[in-house]
């Protein structure tokens, strides 16, 4: 008896091991809008939108007002979110798009019938979480490659319902896991269909832990909304589509509450890139940020983001520190008791201290790089942002986005912006801060040596290969 007491006393003195049991592992839901602008939510300054559910999410959680994607287009930004790495790191900066005539063209996004996609060697969020007992599901848009090699169920997802590409690409089909389910798609009912599937996933896996990635098609063009939402907003069909996405968010929260699992669920809402300005009334607003989708001004990558986790994320709070979608993989791994891959470079960081509102929490990014495809456009460090020369011209050529009456299509000189005073990037202070500019150029040199830069023809030293497969051409008439 005395031996047992002594042994118990000895064990009681040992430090507890950081092992999470299933009951302690939070469910994780990421809801991703497509092409939603920074100023498209009331809680982010919209005056002509009605987004009550997302506003309530912000009231009960945290607005991340300096939260960036890793690219201003969908394929690259989604690759970064899933892997925790810059797109160029995983070979997903520039890709090749096939044409119906058998030729190919450079592209910043994957198109149907492309032989490329996310490599099987990459470790994605669902794979990290599955290792520690999570059930994983994707509902909605994938955009990381064609089946069969690049099917989500071959990259860590237990369940998949949705589409492989953007809703302006053909063929546009619903898949369930590896099986073609439905063609053509009723676009007007797409948001509702995704919501039904997401709610069903949550109900079936309520005992958790689960990871759900709900990737909406809206408000990417061609815009659509179900009859209940059409014509109800102040922003035309774009506003209708956003309102229905907001409704969808509300349905997710209602389900969590009904099942009694809301207190143990982390929900992140974000967008894959900024609003598409060239679409006019069919695109989003990024006010007060400059630029939008397809460009590396803040409007292309700083996206409306909200975090919600009762009792953990402070209600009604705001995080102004620089963070990124690349940070989500390390953060989810830490919260789930998992591990970030140790055999490769992962660019993202665990931002749990930021999400939990810890007093001394700081941005983990000493330098944050702005890539467009394989081109290095700029770098951010603290309040400073440096842009390389001639960037605007290249963006104009590719996307036709920048109808800047002052600049036109003219080549641009290097620029340095103090974002704490000039978030709209209107006035370069390069000449006033030569030492800051020198430091920022040094950061860019480091990035070029690491990740490469096609603008200056510097080859990378630490990047991995894109995935490849043989594909059967299937171009619709």
From TrEMBL:
Report the enzyme's class at the first EC level: hydrolase
Q: Which GO terms describe its molecular function?
A: arylsulfatase activity; metal ion binding
Spell out the SUPFAM superfamilies in the cross-references. Alkaline phosphatase-like
Q: In this protein, which residues make up the domain named Sulfatase N-terminal?
A: 26-337
* Enzyme nomenclature, EC number: 3.1.6.1
PROSITE patterns assigned to the protein according to its UniProt record, in alphabetical order:
SULFATASE_2 (PS00149)
Report the CDD domains cross-referenced here: GALNS_like (cd16026)
Q: Which UniProt keywords apply?
A: Calcium, Hydrolase, Metal-binding, Signal
Q: Where is the signal peptide?
A: 1-22
Any Pfam family matching the protein: Sulfatase_C
Q: Which family does it belong to?
A: Belongs to the sulfatase family.
Its recorded name reads Arylsulfatase
Source organism per entry reads Lacipirellula parvula
Q: What is the lineage of its organism?
A: Bacteria, Pseudomonadati, Planctomycetota, Planctomycetia, Pirellulales
């Amino acid at each position: 008896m005395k031996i047992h007491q002594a042994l118990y006393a000895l064990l009681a003195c040992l430090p507890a091991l950081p092992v999470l049991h299933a009951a302690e592992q939070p469910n994780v839901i990421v809801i991703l809008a497509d092409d939603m602008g920074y100023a498209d939510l009331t809680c982010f300054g919209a005056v002509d939108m009605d987004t009550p559910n997302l506003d309530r999410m912000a009231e009960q959680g945290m607005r991340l007002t300096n939260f960036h994607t890793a690219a201003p287009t969908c394929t690259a930004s989604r690759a970064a979110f899933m892997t925790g790495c810059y797109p160029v790191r995983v070979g997903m900066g520039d890709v090749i798009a096939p044409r119906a005539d058998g030729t190919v063209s450079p592209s910043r996004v994957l198109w149907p019938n492309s032989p490329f996609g996310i490599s099987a060697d990459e470790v994605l969020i669902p794979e990290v979480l599955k290792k520690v007992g999570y059930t994983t599901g994707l509902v909605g848009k994938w955009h990381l490659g064609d089946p069969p090699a690049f099917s989500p169920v071959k990259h860590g997802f237990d369940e998949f319902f949705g589409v492989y590409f953007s809703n302006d690409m053909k063929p546009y089909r619903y898949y369930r896991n590896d099986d073609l389910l439905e063609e053509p798609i009723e676009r007007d009912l797409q948001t509702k269909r995704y919501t039904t599937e997401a709610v069903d996933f949550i109900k079936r896996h309520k005992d958790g832990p689960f990871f759900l990635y709900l990737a909406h098609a809206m408000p990417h063009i061609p815009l659509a909304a179900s009859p209940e939402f059409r014509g109800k907003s102040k922003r035309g069909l774009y506003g209708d589509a956003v309102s229905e996405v907001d409704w969808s968010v509300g349905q997710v929260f209602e389900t969590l509450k009904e099942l009694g699992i809301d207190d143990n669920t982390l929900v992140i809402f974000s967008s894959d890139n900024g609003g598409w300005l060239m679409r006019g009334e069919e695109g989003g607003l990024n006010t007060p940020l400059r630029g939008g989708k397809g460009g590396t001004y803040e409007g292309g990558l700083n996206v409306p983001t909200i975090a919600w986790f009762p009792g953990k994320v402070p209600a009604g709070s705001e995080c102004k520190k620089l963070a990124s979608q690349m940070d989500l993989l390390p953060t989810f791994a830490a919260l789930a008791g998992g591990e970030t891959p140790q055999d490769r470079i992962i660019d993202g960081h665990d931002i749990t201290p930021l999400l939990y509102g810890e007093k001394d929490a700081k941005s983990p990014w000493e330098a944050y790089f702005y890539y467009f495809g394989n081109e290095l456009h700029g770098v951010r460090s603290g309040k400073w942002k440096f842009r390389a020369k001639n960037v605007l011209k290249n963006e104009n050529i590719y996307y036709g986005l920048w109808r800047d009456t002052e600049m036109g299509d003219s080549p641009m000189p290097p620029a340095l912006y103090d974002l704490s005073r000039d978030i709209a990037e209107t006035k370069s202070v390069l000449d006033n801060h030569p030492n800051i500019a020198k430091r920022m150029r040094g950061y860019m040199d480091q990035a070029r040596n690491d990740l490469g830069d096609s603008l200056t023809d510097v080859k990378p030293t630490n990047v991995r290969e894109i995935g490849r497969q043989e594909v059967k051409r299937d171009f619709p008439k």
